[in-house]
Amino acid sequence: MSVSFGRGLIMQIDLHHSCMYVLCRIAGMKSKFAEIAAYASQYVNDAVYKYALTFKDGGYYRQIQTAHKLLSSRNSDINEALEVWMPFHFLPRGGDTAADAWVTAPDSKMMALLLEDICGSSPSHLLYRLGIGLHCFADAFSHQDFKGCNHSYNDIHLLQGLEEKGNKENAGRLPLRLLERWSRDGLAIGHAEALSNPDIPYAEWAYTRSIKTYKIKNLEERYLPAVKNIYDYLVYFLGKNPQYCPGPKIRAFEDYLEKLKQVLSFRGNPEERHAYWLKKIHGNFFEFTDFDDTDRSLRYDEKLWFHLAVEAVKVPKTTNHQYQKYEYHVFRKKDGFEDSHWVKFMQAAAVHQFLIIHCLLPESGMIIG
Asked: Are 337 and 343 in contact (CB under 8 A)?
């Protein structure tokens, strides 16, 4: 398994894909629409490329990068923070004081403005913007009280947690050698020094910042409030966009609380937790009133949307290095490229990014050019 710096700082697939799907469904959304929104939510973590595709049959396509792939010096660059970390994973709260304005919080005015803007999006991009917005909203709960940039505010001391420095369970995620490098280089980005503890639903962890000690119980204090607030927002969203509802009356959130708590409490690595959620969905554990084949076969393949839109053909490594940045692939647009899920996601991500950087942050008094 390759070491992924970005993936150690972001909520994981069990929440962003399967849990988002469940919340969409119990809020009243049809399965075929919930599948798109949930895929878009998780794909925010998987759209890790920034380069423009050059097509063999002519033309170019500029990708929007919404997450990071591997450890690199670019992660400490403020440009990366403004383009990737803050818009998609660590939305600043805004506010009157400069010290607090860049801290992530789920109940901020900035988040409220984002979620309201999504409701009135273009119909062709609405579900994709919804998924991206749900990702950002969910991350605001798990990433609260950290800043999405390299800043001394993120320089905490982890006292205890499910993952700790030197713990062998960290292998393949955030190994000690990388943590030592970050400390040496002064990289205090997001919740890197808290490891993956903020992104594990059942983790209990503690840290100090300055002279104050914080003790966190993720399930009770962050994850259950997150799913309740996301559910409430989805009910509101569907009230504004009833074309995505099948019609049956939805049940109260409280009817699902124990089931959600049970699945969130399942212990395992991200892939095991995701598989457990899918098993529960396939067996209609959540008692969807319009349970169907989409529910029975739900899955996630991070390459699916891309390969439905683009043909990628491997070419031999030669002295010509023009294909090196593409990992030695050439690309061709498939039929329906312009109307594909992948292109619509990229367009929605561009709108989301522009809104945060050039509208919401400046309106909050945070000067962005």
From this structure: yes
CA distance 119 to 77: 32
Whether residue 349 lies inside any domain: the answer is yes
Pull the structure tokens for residue 336. 């329906």
pTM assigned to the model: 0.91
Token pair recorded at residue 168: 């062998």
Of 310, 308, 302, the residue nearest 54 (C-alpha): 310
* pLDDT band at residue 4 using 50, 70 and 90 as cut-offs: very low
Q: How far apart are CA 293 and CA 295, in angstroms?
A: 5
Domain assignment of residue 347, yes or no? yes
Strands (E), the chain: 52-54, 60-62, 157-160, 204-209, 212-217, 310-314, 329-333
Q: Can you tell me the distance from the alpha carbon of 354 to that of 83, in angstroms, rounded to the nearest whole number? A: 9
Tokens matching residue 42: 């998780």
* pLDDT value for 10: 61
List, in order, residues 6 or more apart from 200 with CB less than 8 Å away.
12, 162, 163, 218
Quickly state the pLDDT bin for 62 (edges 50, 70, 90).
very high
Position with higher pLDDT, 359 vs 79: 359
- Per-residue burial over 330-343, b = 16 or more CB atoms within 10 Å of its CB, e = otherwise: bbebeeebeebbbb
Residue-number span of the structural domain to which 21 is assigned: 6-363
Q: In sequence order, what are the beta bridge partners of 213?
A: 208
User: Which three-class secondary structure state does DSSP give residue 329?
Assistant: strand
Is residue 1 situated within a structural domain? no
* Percent over 70 (pLDDT), the chain: 83
For 200, the 3-state DSSP assignment is: coil
The CA distance from 198 to 203, in Å, is 7
The tally of domains found in the chain comes to 1
Which amino acid makes up residue 189? Answer: I
Q: Is 97 exposed, middle or buried (CB count within 10 Å of its CB: 0-12, 13-18, 19+)?
A: exposed
State the Cα–Cα distance between residues 131 and 136, nearest whole angstrom.
9
The answer to whether the CB of 131 falls within 8 A of the CB of 88 is no
In the predicted model, what is the mean pLDDT of residues 77-98?
Answer: 86
Token pair of 173 as six digits: 């995620």
